[in-house]
Design goal:
The protein is an alpha/beta fold and 316 residues long. It has one domain: Rossmann fold (3-Layer(aba) Sandwich), CATH 3.40.50. Helices cover 44% and strands 14% of the residues. A hairpin with a 4-residue loop joins strand 6 and strand 7. It is globular, with a radius of gyration of 21 Å. Pfam families: GSCFA. InterPro entries: GSCFA.
Length: 316
């Protein structure tokens, strides 16, 4: 008897190798994937604008990276005693103008360089809702806890969604490596503050827009992350205490399905060994001078050196 509906990720013809660069952008799940890549010592860069949720803001971020835009003082506003970019997550906010600008511009420069060597891009959309900052008539990525009276909230239209996704694909295809693989996902995190019905509408619009936009494009695919959590792992034991965000068990399950479909055989072996080494390094002995522990560390260092020989980038 079967007691659950298992959702599979279609096996990719183009595989991720041990020297590939992976760029991820979007909502929290993009960060979860980035952390898994980093743990496996695969080159990965995530969310240079911080966590952003809707396709329009993701497109704007990709455009700014492509243009290597240098933000100036007039691109920021002063609110809540901090200098703020409405294109960025609140982690860029600072009481000091130069600090905000330095972080923003450094991230754009690094992302521009990284994307030029990137073979795989993972984009995770969280919502179709967007806010307009009324004083500037500007669509924003984050409200930064500015009073709601300064914003107007609405759903992006299907045309706005598909235009944003098409433009994102166009820019990435131009700046990234030849035959870059662009993988779209919808975050399984429910935005219940929008309302349960409104959240479902928002997610549905995202899924529809993605499928319309990538139809017929050989280098674009949809990863059913949302469907895996909603249908395959349909149980609250796979969520954190807030009952909204997937827990580590759920993330690991999705990661393993993704790896099975997208990693080359060498990458699977490489990542597995690196994860074992990382787990061993986290072991804290009672006495670091113990000869047995010193022998243990020496063996671990030999394993690290063997792994380092396999790749061109720096690991551990």
């Amino acid at each position: 008897m079967k007691f659950r509906t298992e959702v599979e990720i279609n096996e990719s013809i183009t595989k991720i190798g041990i020297d590939d660069c992976i760029f991820s952008i979007g909502s929290c799940f993009a960060t979860e994937m980035h952390e898994k890549f980093s743990e496996g010592q695969i080159q990965s860069l995530n969310n240079p604008f911080g966590t952003i949720f809707n396709p329009y803001s993701v497109c704007q971020a990709i455009r700014q990276i492509y243009d290597a835009k240098e933000y100036q003082e007039n691109d920021l506003i002063l609110a809540n005693e901090s200098y703020i970019s409405l294109d960025h997550h609140s982690s860029f906010d600072s009481r000091y103008l130069h600090r905000s600008l330095e972080k923003i511009n450094k991230n754009i420069e690094d992302a521009n360089q990284f994307l030029q060597n990137t073979g795989f891009v993972i984009i995770t959309f969280g919502t179709s809702f967007i806010y307009e900052f009324l004083p500037k008539k500007k669509l924003v990525a984050n409200c930064h806890k500015i009073p709601q009276k300064f914003f107007e909230k609405r759903l992006l239209s299907n045309q706005e969604l598909t235009d944003s996704i098409h433009k994102t694909i166009e820019i990435l295809t131009d700046i990234c490596r030849d035959n870059v693989q662009i993988l779209f996902t919808v975050s399984p995190v429910r935005h219940i503050k929008d309302g349960m019905i409104e959240n479902q509408l928002s997610k549905s619009k995202l899924i529809t827009a993605i499928h319309e936009s990538i139809s017929g494009k050989d280098n674009c695919n949809y990863l059913p992350v949302y469907e895996i959590l909603m249908d395959d792992l349909r149980d609250y034991r796979f969520y954190k205490d807030d009952l909204i965000h997937p827990n580590s068990q759920a993330v690991q399950y999705i990661w393993e399905k993704f790896g099975s479909a997208y990693f080359s055989d060498n990458a699977k072996i490489f990542i597995n060994e690196n994860n074992k080494i990382a787990a061993a390094l986290n072991h804290k002995p009672g006495d670091e001078k113990n000869p047995k522990y010193q022998d243990f560390i020496e063996k671990i260092n030999l394993r690290i050196k063997e792994q380092q020989k396999k790749v061109k980038h720096k690991i551990f």
